[in-house]
Amino acid sequence: MVFTIHYGFTEDAGNLKESRCGLLTRAETLEQSPLRGCGVRHAPLRSQKPFPRTLNPVFSNEDYLAELLTEAGLVSADDVTRARNSLFGAETIIEHLLGHTLLTQEDVARTLAVNAGIPFVRLAEQTYEPGITETVTEETAKRYRVIPIQDEGYALTIAIADPLDFETLDSLPHIIGRQLNLLCATRQDILDHFRQFYHSGEPLDGMDTSGITITTGDIEADKGGDDAPIIRLVLQMLSEAFRVRASDIHIEPMETSVRIRYRLDGKLVHVDTHPKKLLPAIVARIKVMSGTMSIAEKRLPQDGRIQLKMADKEVDLRVSSVPSNHGESVVMRILDKTGLLLGLPELGFFSDDQATFEQLITLPDGILLVTGPTGSGKTTTLYACLNVINKPDRKIITVEDPIEYEFSGINQVMVKADIGMTFAAALRAMLRQAPNIIMIGEIRDPETANIAINASLTGHLVFSTLHTNDAPSAVARLADIGVKPFLIASAVRAVVAQRLVRKLCPLCKAPAELTDKEMRALSMDASRVVDASIFGPVGCDKCRNNGFKGRMGIFEVFLVDDEVRQMINTGLSTNQLRRRARELGMRTLREDGIRKVLAGITSGGEVVHATMSDAE
After folding, report:
1. Which DSSP symbol is given to 425?
2. What gap in Å lies between CA 309 and CA 227, rounded to an integer?
3. What's the per-residue H, E or C state across 296-332?
4. 3-state DSSP: the chain helix, strand, coil percent, rounded to 5?
5. Best label site of 90, 99, 537, 553, fewest CB within 10 Å?
6. How far apart are CA 137 and CA 135, in angstroms?
7. What is the pLDDT of residues 188-247, one digit of tens each?
8. CA distance 234 to 249
9. Residue 483's pLDDT is what?
10. 325 vs 321, 328, 411, CA distance in Å?
């Protein structure tokens, strides 16, 4: 017998009978069903309560699902009301609740399973027989979002994400031609296993990319072209990366496949694998979206920029392609402009360092340097500073290579060395514009350094970056570039060194103790942790089960006062400057990191990994 599945009923719905999974066929009335009286509610027909605002909902009957979640105590009625009033773009009620409350995908799936009378399952914990994917075609799995689990001959066990979608459940037994035993899994679990099982270049149906608008390059290509598999694949890749707050997308050609990785909170995470034959089409599509990269040139590195609108948010992508031995490797840096609105506390400054920094960025003249390796957040810190001091009564000009974020009210100049527009040339021209504040993306050469120094000595406040390991080393770095010590002492007001560490997920972090190895590495004794709030990573759906979510800075603020100026003029070494600065109250990167470990914000392992020992 083939089971016909129904979850919504009308007066003429007919008689029903229970199958193995609590599903019913036309042989027994609903009143006789074993589901009756056991707490299982049946969803109303989808036509009675249409879902709002999107053509591709996450679940077929979100209003009813929201009621179930409220009754289960997983969300409150106020949460649902706020979600309805806060939707933007193609966002749905359940998506908003998942992103703004403690609700997890597993909570949703378990609630659906209980309501439908079927078991909940984690797909990663199942054992799959060889050839199980042959029981359900890729097209069917993609269209109906199902994963085959076990073939029992007379029946097939499959996992579904939405037991409320009665139209799909009614069609599946006829399409597959088998009796079906149903299990309920999370939507993300099914998506991940679909990619793993079928190695498909196409996203699952229902993975909505309609909220993405391309504003650079081939603008017409995203209008009516979503049926093209490669276009949909690239848009889905961008949408998913933005959703999980990735900072980079890495498309890497391997010998027989294409590997997709996201950089999440500074760590590269493998997310997908595609057939090697898709690489040329994926790379070509990305180049077309940029509008400036040549699809014919595959032998030389290229750079470009893509501007998108995702869910009413403007997103810039900085694109880089490099030819490798297996094909072109592409990296896209995601520049989310909402990061520009961060205040100093969100960057990671504690109140004492914040007060010092706020005084520094309001000085009338001098140079403020931010140092650290590539990817340590220097540019974000400088942009946050400019955002604080960007007022109508101030003229601000920046020179950058390249311009990562576009600022309203700030004149931004991009370096173009091939036509002679270098940092030094741009700086000379900028000084004739009578600015109050100048930001230089990076001091790289003697000419740029000397122009910046002279600008700071003639009444301009200059912000810039250097590549050094700590703050006091900036003095030696400037001297090495060619700046005379007396100019360094006169112009530099402060140097801020920084690193990024991952923050513990606030939803799942748990009390923990530092290991003996961490205590030794951090040079801490037991007395310092007696009254501390030390936490460690655990893992949950919100943080992708790694225990960390987001990053913050740890800082080393080196103030150049009269005593330090005298030391610079006399040519003291970096170690002597660092020792004296610590005597005057400077906290090193590791000491600032330890404060954040003791406050329960990050872990000891993160600080040990990101900083050097303070031993002389």
Report:
1. H
2. 20
3. CCCCCCEEEEEEEEECCEEEEEEEEEEEECCEEEEEE
4. 40, 20, 40
5. 99
6. 7
7. 888 878 877 775 545 454 444 555 666 555 544 444 444 468 888 888 888 888 878 888
8. 11
9. 92
10. 13, 8, 41
